Amino acid sequence: MILLTRLDGRAFYLNCDLIDFLEYTPDTVITLRNDRKIIVKEKVEEVYQKIIEYKQKIYFNPFIVENNKIKVNTNNETILDILNKDIKKLKDEDYFKDIDLEDNED
User: Fold this and answer.
1) Is the pLDDT of residue 12 over 60?
2) What is the mean pLDDT of residues 44-67?
3) Which domain holds residue 89?
4) Is 80 inside any structural domain?
5) Can you list the pairs that 40-46 forms with residues at least 24 positions away whose Cβ atoms lie under 8 Å?
6) By CB atoms within 10 Å of each CB, which of 1, 16, 64, 94 scores lowest?
7) What is the DSSP string of 47-95?
8) Is 39 in a helix, a strand, or coil?
9) Cβ partners under 8 Å of residue 95, min gap 6
10) How many distinct helices (H) and strands (E) make up the chain?
11) Does residue 20 fall inside a structural domain?
């Protein structure tokens, strides 16, 4: 969900998966898949950027590979602790025995 602002200043969250398209008019018009239209204060580019940021969080890849080492991608702090616990558990079970795993505990 992305946070947007109606023309009257009221903030609301919109499920961006329901957006069909965005229109440039003097105001930004969002047309939903059910043909409902919502006018917001944010510019089309701002709405688009919020959608991109939201999707990146949803489809976040928790692991990255650098120099043949698997590391936790720390760009998303909200899941870092969970991932570190999972990696520790996998290391303890010798799951990564053939891979050089870099510790990410600070």
Assistant:
1) yes
2) 79
3) 63-101
4) yes
5) 40/4, 40/5, 40/6, 40/7, 41/4, 41/5, 41/6, 41/7, 41/9, 42/4, 42/5
6) 94
7) HHHHHHHHHHHHT---EEEETTEEEE-TT-GGGHHHHHHHHHHHHHTTT
8) strand
9) none
10) 2, 8
11) yes
In one-letter notation, the amino acid at residue 87 is I
Burial of 4 (0-12, 13-18, 19+ CB in 10 A): buried
Q: Which amino acid appears at position 98 of this protein?
A: D
The tally of domains found in the chain comes to 2
Q: Are residues 32 and 80 in the same domain?
A: no
Task: Print burial letters for 56-67: b (CB count within 10 Å at least 16), e (below 16).
Answer: eeeeeeeeeeee
Query: Tokens 């709405």 map to which residue?
Result: 47
Q: Do residues 63 and 27 lie in contact, with contact meaning Cβ atoms separated by under 8 Å?
A: no
Decide which of 18 and 59 is more confident: 18
